[in-house]
Amino acid sequence: MKTKTRKHSRSRSFAIAIVGGGKVGSVLGRVLAEEGARIVAIVSRTTRSARAAGRFVGCANCSTELTAIPGETDVILIATPQAAISEVAEALANLGGLPLGRMAVCHTSGMLTAAALDPLAARGATVFSFHPLQTFPRDFSVCAILDSARGITFGVDGSARGLRMARYLARLLKGRTVLIPPALRSFYHAACVLASNHLTAMLAILESMHRTIRPEDKRFFTVYEPILRATLGNIAATSPAVALSGPIARGGIETVKGHFDALEAYAPDLIPYFTTMSRETARLASVKGSLTPLQREALEQLLRSYTEQPAQTKETT
Question: Which DSSP state fits 124?
Fold first, then answer.
């Protein structure tokens, strides 16, 4: 009787080696372990980081050497800093003893495509990019980040075989994949920055404005959390254009003028930011159909009056 070749049978747990013992590798490794995968090795730059990640994930095979990766490994997940990925890929490709032809290798960089793993592909490995579309702040502990890493989206690219493996790995993490065309990888990463880093910067501006309004109130987020959550909920239920409200969406030019007068008095450094965002809001309101061309032109003239003339020469406009 002929025995069938089994690729990644569900009768045994998936074997994953992690290269990079930082927050991304540790958190994804822990979630994978909790979902039934076997973390068979953790390799990191220092013994200390490897052991710390091993304790968190529950893996005893912790090392600073790639030779610690066992031949039974199904997937090698490279979660090092972006600058180290190509070096790790070359080192793995030149490492004797690993049956790369039956292994998959992925990296978690948001900027790099699967091409960063070409040396491994040339050795027969199935390669793909596997970027977790989530924030992993350095100032937060791995325990604090853990819950937010479940059920997320992963930006992926690679061969058809690599994409199948990416989808399987995402399912293990209770997540999903989104295919990113290689030519648009940097554009995609810029979108991720907008979704997280720019949002954080915007909230820092909101915090500074609230500090001007109520210097003694340190919990600005509690004040604005209901409107923030409602806005996100409205967008999730419809679209940004449908969810848009406020003075610009209503064509309330005088209200906007009052805002800029107040900014000039209390936070003049925020005028460039508010000008840019007012223009973007006007563009969205035009898409929505709530702002007429004449109202948009009136708003543009108002914005120019605050950015193109010295404040002392701008009287009534």
Answer: T
